[in-house]
Amino acid sequence: MNNQAEAGVSRAADPACLFCRIVAGEIPAARVHEDDTLIAIRDIAPRAPTHVLFLPREHIVSAAELTRADGSMLGRLFEAAASFARAEGLTDAGYRMVTNVGEWGGQTVGHLHIHLLGGRSMGWPPG
């Protein structure tokens, strides 16, 4: 477990992390939402008509590092994604939200993020 997160200590940005650099404004991205907790950007290689990434501003490598102290941040990520899905008209037909953990889980950027995919039917299993 990450004792810093459990103690409520903020996780520092990683200067080598692509998403930390996007959060900092060093790398441009198509931002669709931002607040004190997170930013949301359009995926540069979309896998669905709507493909948006919701990522916390603080650097967390993956869901494997989450602790109870992250509950409020996670709630905000999901709330923002659901609000965006409603605004985009995705709720009636449905959409998918997913986070990947590690190489075998399909994670390509080591910064926690939730994919919101919609606008087409999703197959199962996904992998």
Would you give an account of this structure?
The chain is globular. The N terminus is likely disordered. It has one domain: HIT-like (HIT family, subunit A), CATH 3.30.428.10. It has a five-stranded antiparallel beta sheet with strand order 1-2-3-5-4, with helices on one face. The chain has 127 residues and is of the alpha+beta class. The chain has three helices and five strands, in the order ααβββαββ.
Topology:
Elements: H1 3-6, H2 18-23, E1 31-34, E2 38-42, E3 50-56, H3 71-87, E4 95-98, E5 114-118
Antiparallel strand pairs: 1-2, 2-3, 3-5, 4-5
Q: Please mark out the parts with pLDDT under 50 across 5 or more consecutive residues, or reply none.
A: 1-9
Oligomeric assembly: single chain
Largest sheet: 5 strands, antiparallel
Name of the CATH class = Alpha Beta
Here the CATH topology equals HIT family, subunit A
Named at the architecture level, the CATH assignment is 2-Layer Sandwich
Short description:
The chain has 127 residues and is α+β, with helices and mostly antiparallel strands. It contains three helices and five strands. It has one domain: HIT-like (HIT family, subunit A, 2-Layer Sandwich).
Key terms for this structure?
127 residues, alpha+beta, HIT family, subunit A, 20% strand
